[in-house]
Amino acid sequence: MQRLGRIVMYLLEAATNPMLLTAGSDEGDDPSFLHPPLEHQGHEPLADLLARYSSFEQPWKYQRVCSIVKEAAEKGEKILIWSSYVKNLRALARLLDQYRPAVVHGGVPSDEIALPGVITREREFERFRHDPSCAVLLANPAACGEGVSLHHWCHHAVFLDRTFNAGHFLQSQDRIHRLELAEDVVTRFTLLISAGSIDDSVDGRLAEKVSALSLLMDDPGLVQIALPSADEGSGGTPAFDDDYQAISAHIAAENA
């Protein structure tokens, strides 16, 4: 399972930004997501291509996020961008610098342990909520658990990537979708999925898990809220035992 978890991390990286494959995990990543760079001998053509990936193109997910944030900022709206990879958050922070993004991940300390003058999670949340020039929050689901409420300020969240962890998926949606919202407020979730990649397997497994959870809780509304319709476009483990078949099927299909 440990080796399988690393394989999942590589596949998720490739589906978003192939250049991450040669970088390995970031010190701010959730501990369960830590993984080394993809091993290679140094002379393979693929390794060279990955190292120079940014000179060929920009990941389509990055392009889409920039477009969404630009459109929202022009309307005076705020956007929440989710990614499990801190390196994605750092890269997007540079691309979206003009929108003064707030950034929250495992490497950003809380007020309780931070030294004076150091940027903290709480200050970043407050800046996102109340600073008109801060149009976007870049966040890691593992670092934004219960108790973080953004629903009065933000009504659109974009998932750059997701893991097989249904708990993180549901909790991340709860950050901007709460019962006390006015009836006329529409909350939107945009899922960025690379067709033919591990994203498809993750999407299918999360749909199954949320549906099963709704039956267990006798709450059909959970599916309606958590799963978008087809036209919408610590427990931090990226994969679990019951995800093995989905991962194996994806790898077998791509190698067929």
UniProtKB/TrEMBL annotation:
GO terms for biological process: DNA repair; replication fork processing. CDD domains: SF2_C_SNF. Keywords: Hydrolase. Residues 61-179 form the Helicase C-terminal domain. Gene3D superfamilies: P-loop containing nucleotide triphosphate hydrolases. GO terms for molecular function: helicase activity; hydrolase activity. Pfam families: Helicase_C. It comes from the Bacteria. This is Helicase C-terminal domain-containing protein. It comes from Falsiruegeria mediterranea M17.
